[in-house]
Design goal:
There is one protein chain. The chain has 68 residues and is α+β, with helices and mostly antiparallel strands. Strands 1-2 form a two-stranded parallel ribbon. The chain is globular, with a radius of gyration of 12 Å.
């Protein structure tokens, strides 16, 4: 079951990606540890692939997710 994604603030769903992103296992492992904390912030400069990495990680989750 894919997670249900809620986009808060934008009022519209995230666009579908039409390219195959680079898989970053280390980033995914760090995001896996995010469940230990009430809030996790993903920070990097423009163009570093934050949205792509987060989308890839979310695709592997089950359950409900809120993305702000």
């Amino acid at each position: 079951m894919r997670p249900r994604l809620s986009s808060v603030g934008s009022g519209r769903p995230q666009p579908r990606r039409i390219f195959k992103p680079v898989v970053r296992p280390r980033v995914s492992q760090l995001l896996d540890s995010a469940y230990r904390y009430p809030v996790t912030v993903l920070v990097a400069g423009a163009g570093y692939g934050k949205s792509v990495a987060l989308d890839h990680w979310l695709a592997g989750l089950q359950g409900d997710v809120v993305r702000l």
